[in-house]
Specification:
Shape: globular
Radius of gyration: 19 Å
Largest sheet: 10 strands, mixed
Oligomer: single chain
Order of helices and strands: EEEHHEHEHHEEEEEHEEEEHH
Distance between the termini: 35 Å
Helix content: 25-40%
Structural class: alpha+beta
Number of strands: 14
Strand order of the largest sheet: 1-2-3-12-9-14-7-6-4-5
Strand content: 25-35%
Length: 278
């Protein structure tokens, strides 16, 4: 395999190379790129369940289809423990899994006293969010742990504040479908005013499968849908930095979020000063 190849339109990169991405270039899959992350190793060793088996969680009904997702997530949730939920994942009936499986989606890393149990001490530079410079109490809680059975997933969407995202699978397999920004506009998922922020405006649809230890990067403007092929544990995070700041800035401007715009401008200035000093 060459250092960089195409997987049905998704750029695949070998582990050990810098994690580089761009809005124009599209999603990037780093095979084995998260294999040494704490959550991945804890799942492989069984330490994850040993440490968090009694953790109380809330699951929601999920569907990869947009027409069903809003209604199902609005339905009452299921309060359970991680151990009980994983038992459910292993025994969920085929019919239920195909119709509307339960999915743990609101488990934030920020809710735990030791984020180091899930994430590496330092993310690759290109995935670090400028918001991590904020005090903990002001920082968006944009890192989540997802746990779901076969057939669970998320409908086609773009992410919060038009941010980019990374996703690391710790156990199981995810299948992803991506729409380029132009295709996302055509599908009604991405508002058209964002399209001028993308140089490559081709209408395209990409797919890839992500396995345990793989790291995936989803740039701003690329709508995505995911389906879990089996019981899957993953950690994901959203971020804003120099690679997508204009998407976030336009989102905030169109919604009149003046305070956040000023904050983003200050962070942009700090980044420029830091790069100049370096």
């Amino acid at each position: 395999m060459s250092p960089t190849t195409q997987v049905r339109g998704v750029t695949e990169v070998e582990r050990g190379r810098p994690v580089e991405w761009s809005v124009d270039g599209g999603p990037v899959l780093v095979r084995g790129g998260a294999s040494d992350w704490p959550l991945v190793q804890a799942c492989a060793s069984g330490d994850f369940v040993a440490a968090y088996g009694d953790r109380e969680l809330t699951a929601v009904r999920s569907s990869p289809e947009a027409a069903d997702q809003a209604r199902r997530e609005a339905s009452p949730g299921w309060t359970t423990t991680l151990r009980e939920f994983l038992t459910y994942c292993g025994t969920a009936a085929d019919g239920e899994a195909a119709e509307a499986p339960w999915y743990v989606k609101d488990w934030t890393v920020a809710s735990e006293t030791d984020p180091g149990a899930f994430l590496p001490a330092r993310l690759p530079h290109s995935l670090r969010s400028w918001f991590t410079r904020l005090p903990a109490e002001a920082r968006p809680g944009w890192e989540w742990i997802y746990v779901g059975p076969r057939g669970s997933g998320s409908a086609m969407h773009v992410d919060v504040m038009m941010s980019s995202a990374w996703n690391a699978v710790a156990a199981g397999t995810k299948h992803w479908r991506f729409l380029s920004p132009a295709a996302s506009v055509r599908a009604g998922v991405l508002p058209e005013p964002y399209l001028d922020l993308v140089a490559g405006r081709d209408d395209a649809e990409f797919e890839c499968s992500q396995e345990a230890g793989d790291l995936l990067v989803i740039p701003s403007g690329w709508a995505h849908q995911v389906v879990n092929h089996d019981t899957t544990v993953a950690v994901t995070g959203n971020f804003v930095n120099g690679g997508n700041v204009e998407f976030a800035r336009r989102y905030l401007r169109t919604r009149g979020r003046t305070a956040w715009l000023k904050l983003l401008d200050a962070l942009t200035h700090d980044e420029r000063e830091w790069n100049h000093a370096a």
